[in-house]
User: Fold DEAD box protein 1 from Micractinium conductrix.
Amino acid sequence: MSAFEEAGVAPELISAVDELGWTLPTPIQAEAVPLILGGGDVMAAAETGSGKTGAFALPVLQIVHEALRTRQAARQAGGGGGTAPSAQRSLCVLNAEDRDAVFAISGDGLRCQARSEQAWGGCRGTVGAFSGRVYYEATVSDEGLCRVGWSTQAASLDLGTDKHGFGYGGTGKKSHVRQFEDYGEPYGLNDTVGCLLDSDGGTISYTKNGALLGPAFQLPQHMRGQAFYPAVCLKNAELQVNFGGSPFKHAPPPGYGGLASAPRSTTASWQEAPAGSGGGGGKPLAIILEPARDLAEQTHNNITLFRKHLRDPSIRNELLVGGTAAAAQLRALKEGVDIVVGTPGRVMDFMETGKLPTDQVQFFVLDEADRLLDTGNQEVIMKMFQRFPKGGSGVARLQVLLFSATLHSPEVRALAGKICQNPIIIDLKGKDAVPEAVHHVLVRCDPQEDRSWLQSAPAVHTDAVHALDQTGPNLDTPENWSEAVKRLKQRYLQRVLDAFQMEQCLIFCRTNFDCDNLELFLNSLGGGSGGGFRGKRESGVESRYSCVVLAGARSMDERRAALQAFKDGDVRFLICTDVAARGIDIQGLPYVINMTLPDRSEDYIHRVGRVGRADTMGLAISLVSSVPEKVWFCTQKGYKPWLQPDAHNTRTNEEGGQTTWYDEPQLLQDIEKRLSRPIAALDADLSLPADIAAHVAGGGGGSEVQYGQQRGGGVSKEVAERVAAVRPAVQGLARLEFAAQSSFYELKRKWAATAAHA
Assistant:
């Protein structure tokens, strides 16, 4: 039995990971996979490069595949083995799989209540209609706030708050896209509201205690033919509904019939693609959110690799990210998608426009949750969560999987409290963890001592924050020293690259504009033939200072090409920002350089986590200014003051401008506190400090190693520990296998002898 099989992973998935060279699950995979397969919510944190993607992708794929096989078998059994929906009528009740957590339903599915006094709770029926005229009744059985009506499966359960839902409330208001207008009259305890849907005429109307109230809504033309489901929304109230399975209190108007008795050819079950809606195949069972396009693409590609052996049925996954044409993504959704991986903006756009159905979602995965929150996505995440069905139990209920670099931030814990249900916490990283195989050093950049910033060649490119300030060799002002250190850092970078003869290095900058300027500088040193990387060359690495940029301001195609060029070894240096580089996994990366320290210590951990993976030696070098540095800090989204610096925008934020003063010595103290140790400076000749040099020479185990190589003769500490941990179990299984085979052959021999004597 393989270690992945011991964790409960299906054979088809094991075959896929075997082909990727995965011999053992990583600690986070060994912990998370069985828990997710068991059906619980999971919050997990582990070091970057620890196999987090596999930890959630493998069990999600397995459960999604099992659900698809179950549905396929049910269709074949009910429809004579064909692919058409079964002609058997679905039970028309309130849907326990399509409701808010505060919404309770009786055993017969016809009585409901929501007892929260603060929050609305909503629910839809199990059957909807896309043709004909149908009717259902809702009777208020306990006083409270109610809205009743119709919605598509793309609608929010908070009825009438978006373009897909149409409601009528007890206050005498009709509601659609949060527009509450006078309609009919108020209703309350013991009143019965009739809800009428004319799919062919495109109207929604209501009655109160049998009296017609007139048309409330005219359906837009593009919504004609879509399946509309009964929808109710309550706040501290109770309703009794009747879809026509028993006599109505008030007969529907002529031409209308009970929804439960409507012809099968005019209705759709919530589990089917609505017949008449133009829809195609299956609906997504899993939504996976990533904070950046590159990371979403990386996760999508991993899932494609993992699912390659899953058959009958196969699994379809789709990437939904901005910066790419939406037409192909929309076409894939129409044809049917089982797993969606995307960024919050594009995924939410498809949900709000009804192109991405959410009524069958079983998994909501937030990868890099801390970064998702850093980029202001909490409101979007909550809107998505409200759309997902909350009913079911075990593996049939909505599972929320929250993977983060840290579980200790208040924002992450607050989000988990809202969307997770008794989550199991896996924290293999701890608050201040950093890979042990990473050495941390710094280069102190003091323009008052090192006057090389005054040199005219090679030319440097700064951020123009001091374009209006006087600078020069004889000035002693904060502005002058700030501009000086900007110039000095690029020269120090060149010296560090030469001193270590770096063949591959990740270089972090604060902003997209800083990345652009550093690219210009390296290209001026000979970073690319003709001024930049121009594509793969047969001769290998393009030049001594060849570089590419991975930053949010670049197009998706540019970022993809840049990352591939770096991975393939066509360029030596990848210049990037924090957000763009989040989740990048480059095997054996030896060096990371921080042109400027990040303003949060946890971002430093994320940066240096690009090296030191799988017990590979890595070196993190930070260029630290000894003087305050003035930098751009824009409070206005989309504004680029560096393109036209003026007397107003070069002021600090406190003065109403778009800049701030950066105090790197203080930031360094915060990072050292997080690491629980000081960071040593490189010697004057940029050689390693003596203790680090000795550690590298000894390799931590008696043999010399280099950065980018594994310690311990090529067998990582993590792998060695896992092998030692599973060795007794594997040996025991081997003994059992030998005993079973011996018993089989002994029985076979005895039966053969018995047969011969007979």
Summary: The chain has four domains: 3-71+289-427, 94-269, 438-698, 716-758. Residues 438-698 form a domain with the Rossmann fold fold (CATH 3.40.50.300). The mean pLDDT is 85.
